[in-house]
Design goal:
Order of helices and strands: HEEEHHHEEHHEEEEEHHEHE
Oligomer: single chain
Distance between the termini: 38 Å
Radius of gyration: 20 Å
Number of strands: 12
Bound molecules: zinc ion
Helix content: 25-40%
Largest sheet: 7 strands, mixed
Structural class: alpha/beta
Shape: globular
Strand order of the largest sheet: 6-5-4-3-2-1-12
């Protein structure tokens, strides 16, 4: 019995070693490029019934992932110029509706500095999609490898007219006009970023033609599913679709895929624009 106990102990120790070796030491920080709001939630989710109407103030989520093979940023927020003079940079209608509160210290380069990094040390910038609150500062990272779905690159430079090619649309040419010669990893679907299963890019189209999300397995084994705009906020999980979609069918398929992943892996979805969730769980590391 004694001997069996010892063997079991050794096996247990080996299992713990094996499970921690299976995941690289990825850790994730959730931050925001200032806030949007307050405004009526039905401005974003018109399907919501009047009795569920409320004023919301929401984050503009950005993520920093530290991995032994390199530093990753997932989305770069609103362009730095938005905090200086919004209406000189975005269409005035976007400034009036979204009411961005971004200060200089909220911008991704300063957020990296706050965490002890500099922007030029970022190896990979993953951009969920090419809307103004997600791709705003990619030009701060000219040396990084930029990861987008290939379809999204097409759309970034020539968006569908109904999705806002012209002012006051959600695509801002000045965000990307000097980024054409950047080094792009052009994806067609899911991708294991470091080849070790710790950072998986997930294709989640619908909000835009080539939207992508991310799944990170932290060193402790926790699964962090970062939806970005595949799911804006809780009401979308409750069945009320977002009011801005390239394809409602693809959007619905992506929401369902992420929900299934959440339930199977027994974790939660971290959403791009949920004020309550960010208040409870943002501005902190997940290790
Ligand atoms: Zn967004």
């Amino acid at each position: 019995m004694k001997r069996t106990g010892m063997v079991a102990g050794i096996l247990g120790a080996l299992c713990i070693a094996a499970s921690s070796a299976a995941f690289a030491q990825a850790k994730v920080y959730w931050t925001t490029s200032g806030m949007f709001g307050p405004f009526d939630i039905r401005g974003l989710i018109p399907a919501l019934p009047a009795d569920k109407s409320r004023q919301i103030t929401i984050p503009v989520s950005m993520w920093v992932i530290e991995h032994p093979k390199g530093l990753v940023v997932f989305d770069t927020g609103n362009n730095v110029a938005v905090g200086e003079d919004c209406k000189a940079y975005w269409a005035p209608g976007n400034c009036d509706f979204l009411k961005p509160s971004q200060k200089r210290e909220d911008v991704i380069d300063m957020q990296l500095k706050k965490l002890g990094y500099s922007a030029d040390k970022v190896k990979v910038v993953v951009t969920s999609h090419s809307h103004l609150d997600h791709i705003g500062n990619i030009e701060m990272f000219p040396k990084a490898i930029h990861v987008l779905q290939k379809k999204e690159l097409y759309q970034a430079w020539w968006p569908e007219k109904f999705q806002g090619r012209t002012s006051p649309g959600s695509f801002v040419m000045a965000d990307i006009d000097n980024a054409r010669e950047f080094n792009y990893l052009e994806l067609n679907g899911d991708y294991d970023l470091f080849g070790d299963g710790s950072v998986i890019i997930l294709s989640t189209p619908g909000h835009t033609i080539g939207h992508q999300s991310m799944k990170v397995k932290t060193a402790s084994g926790q699964t962090i599913i970062i939806t970005q705009d595949a799911v804006w906020m809780q009401e979308n999980l409750d069945g009320y679709p977002a009011g801005l979609n390239y394809s409602v069918k693809d959007y619905t398929d992506s929401v369902n895929r992420l929900k299934m992943m959440r339930d199977i892996e027994n974790t939660e979805l971290f959403m791009a624009h949920d004020g309550d969730q960010f208040k409870a769980k943002g501005a902190r590391w997940y290790k």
